[in-house]
Amino acid sequence: MVLRVLGTWFLLAGVVALVIDITRTLAADALVMTRIGEHWFQFHSASLNASQAGIQRYVHPALWDPVILALLQTPTWLVSMALGILLILIGRRRRRHNVFSN
């Protein structure tokens, strides 16, 4: 239940981010896509810097540059919607199948 609710919130946040990007694109007459790294930097840049330092120091330096930076360059709406769909699928109710019925 919790995963489905959380997934729905992420899905709605993705729709809102997509609408904002579409509105900004129409206003600017150019493609505008806000990246998740930009949002993270705007909301709490200290945690972004701490995450980079922690991953490079304690996990592996090569993980930050190709992997995490690629994720941070992804549009916010795409990451949010993908995470929402994934959480909804993980939290869905399973049907019970009776193997002994017709």
Description of the molecule:
This protein has about 100 residues and is mainly alpha-helical. It folds into two domains: about 1-35 and about 75-90; about 35-75, no CATH class. About 75% of the residues lie in helices and about 0% in strands. It has helices at about 1-30, 35-60, 60-70, 75-90. Helix 1 packs antiparallel against helix 4 (about 75-90). The protein is flat. It starts with a helix and ends in a 12-residue tail after the last helix. The model has no long low-confidence stretch (mean pLDDT about 90).
What's the structural blueprint in terms of helices and strands?
Blueprint: H1 2-28, H2 36-59, H3 61-72, H4 76-90
Helix pairs in contact: 1-4, 2-3
Largest sheet properties: none
Determine Rg (CA atoms, Å). Answer: 18 Å
Name the beta content range.
Answer: under 5%
By secondary-structure content and strand pairing, the structural class works out as mainly alpha
Distance between the termini: 31 Å
What average pLDDT do the residues reach? 92
Give the tally of structural domains: 2
Q: What string, H for helix and E for strand, traces the elements in order? A: HHHH
What is the β-strand count? 0
Number of helical stretches of at least 4 residues: 4
Can you tell me the residue ranges where pLDDT is under 50 for at least 5 consecutive residues?
Answer: none
**Which descriptor suits the 3D outline?**
flat
The helix fraction, in percent, is: over 70%
